[in-house]
């Protein structure tokens, strides 16, 4: 009886695995977020006792922002007081400070207030910066000043990000649903989390000398693909363009290349001195008078060679030039002979013809003759 029980237990095991897989699939389907779903707002009921510690953040702002901040400061205080956060503007130090109070119930509100004052210091208008206090909006301040060393190159790439009359920046804002502000050495972006991720990628790629038009094209394709419900679960790699980086300006090679010699551990051979040369030629064993005679003979041989060369140069003027071969004229063929008699006849006929206009009498006679001919024909 033990054997069949074991078999039964073995048969039941795979069935339980199949059920667990089905359950896992069902759970993954349940994890999908429906369209238009929003997380419920954080209220006082979620944190009735408030915060135990006081938190504060401060940021400095440039001198040129002082006038604008003075103007919009009552609106900033009003927006932060709704969430029970205090804000102070110090014009002497040039700083803004935000602090929590005993009534503050949202612990993350101080972080949002910190982002608000950072954006205001980075030349973002209050109407846009105040959106950070909403739950579905975040901000990202991208530092681009240290990404490019050359200042002129940095300015060109920053201008490329903005585009002619701000067209590139406007296209990015429409595709990512973010507000983008390029100011000095930073780029301030404000919008949904997915959009901020795309903005950061485009900005960093532009600073790495990748034109923003490539990323804009990719974003446009992604936007169209997201509208199709069937393609949401599929990979989009086959639809997205693949841009290859090409190095067009190749480094020119120098005309003169310094080729390094192969390293050898042995030193170069010593140059021969005068004694070694005389020993090799056998002059060392000659007497002084013999050496002198040999030197005189060498000088005379050189002189004779020089005289011979000079004489050859002089004789070149007396050498007659080569005469050109005389080419005999070919006999004219019978086919190309000129008919003289025919030419004579043509000349005689031309002489008979009267040049200039006909006299009046001859013209009248000719007209009368023509009229007679016409009458006969009729």
From TrEMBL:
Stretches for region Disordered: 1-45, 248-277, 303-331
Keyword Nucleus: yes
Keywords of this entry: Nucleus, Ribonucleoprotein, Ribosome biogenesis, RNA-binding, rRNA processing
Record's subunit section: Component of the ribosomal small subunit (SSU) processome. Part of the small subunit (SSU) processome, composed of more than 70 proteins and the RNA chaperone small nucleolar RNA (snoRNA) U3.
Protein family membership: Belongs to the KRR1 family.
Residue ranges occupied by any K Homology domain in the UniProt entry: 136-208
Gene3D superfamilies linked to this entry: K Homology domain, type 1
Annotated function: Part of the small subunit (SSU) processome, first precursor of the small eukaryotic ribosomal subunit. During the assembly of the SSU processome in the nucleolus, many ribosome biogenesis factors, an RNA chaperone and ribosomal proteins associate with the nascent pre-rRNA and work in concert to generate RNA folding, modifications, rearrangements and cleavage as well as targeted degradation of pre-ribosomal RNA by the RNA exosome. Required for 40S ribosome biogenesis. Involved in nucleolar processing of pre-18S ribosomal RNA and ribosome assembly.
Protein name: KRR1 small subunit processome component
Bias (Basic and acidic residues): 36-45
One Pfam assignment: KH_KRR1_1st
CC per GO annotation: small-subunit processome
Biased composition (Basic residues): 248-259
UniProt KW Amino-acid biosynthesis keyword: no
Compartments (UniProt record): Nucleus, Nucleolus
GO BP of this protein: rRNA processing
GO molecular function: RNA binding
Taxonomic source organism: Mauremys mutica (yellowpond turtle)
């Amino acid at each position: 009886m033990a054997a069949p029980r074991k078999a039964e237990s073995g048969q039941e095991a795979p069935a339980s695995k199949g059920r667990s897989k089905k359950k896992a699939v069902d759970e993954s389907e349940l994890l999908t977020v429906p369209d238009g779903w929003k997380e419920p707002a954080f209220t006082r009921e979620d944190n009735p006792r408030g915060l135990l510690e006081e938190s504060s953040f401060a940021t400095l702002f440039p001198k040129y922002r002082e006038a604008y901040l003075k103007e919009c400061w009552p609106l900033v205080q009003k927006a932060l007081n709704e969430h029970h956060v205090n804000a102070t503007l110090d014009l002497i130090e040039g700083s803004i400070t935000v602090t929590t109070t005993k009534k503050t119930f949202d612990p993350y509100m101080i972080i949002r207030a910190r982002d608000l004052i950072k954006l205001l210091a980075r030349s973002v208008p209050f109407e846009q910066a105040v959106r950070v206090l909403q739950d579905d909006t975040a901000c990202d301040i991208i530092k681009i000043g240290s990404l490019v060393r050359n200042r002129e190159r940095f300015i060109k790439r920053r201008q490329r990000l903005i585009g002619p009359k701000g067209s590139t920046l406007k296209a990015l804002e429409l595709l990512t649903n973010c507000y983008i502000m390029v100011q000095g050495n930073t780029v301030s972006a404000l919008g949904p989390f997915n959009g901020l991720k795309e903005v950061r990628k485009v900005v960093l790629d532009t600073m790495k000398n990748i034109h923003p038009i490539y990323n804009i094209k990719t974003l446009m394709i992604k936007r169209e693909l997201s509208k199709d419900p069937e393609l949401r679960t599929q990979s989009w790699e086959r639809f997205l363009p693949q841009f290859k980086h090409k190095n067009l300006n190749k480094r020119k090679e120098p005309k003169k290349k310094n080729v390094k010699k192969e390293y050898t551990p042995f030193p170069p051979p010593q140059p021969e001195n005068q004694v070694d040369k005389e020993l090799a030629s056998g002059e060392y064993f000659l007497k002084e008078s013999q050496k002198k005679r040999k030197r005189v003979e060498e000088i005379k041989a050189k002189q004779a060679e020089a005289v011979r060369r000079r004489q050859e140069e002089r004789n070149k003027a007396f050498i007659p030039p080569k005469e050109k071969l005389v080419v005999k004229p070919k006999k004219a063929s019978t086919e190309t002979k000129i008919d003289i008699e025919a030419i004579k006849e043509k000349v005689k006929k031309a002489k008979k013809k009267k040049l200039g206009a006909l006299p009046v009498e001859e013209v009248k006679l000719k007209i009368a003759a023509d009229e007679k001919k016409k009458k006969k024909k009729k």
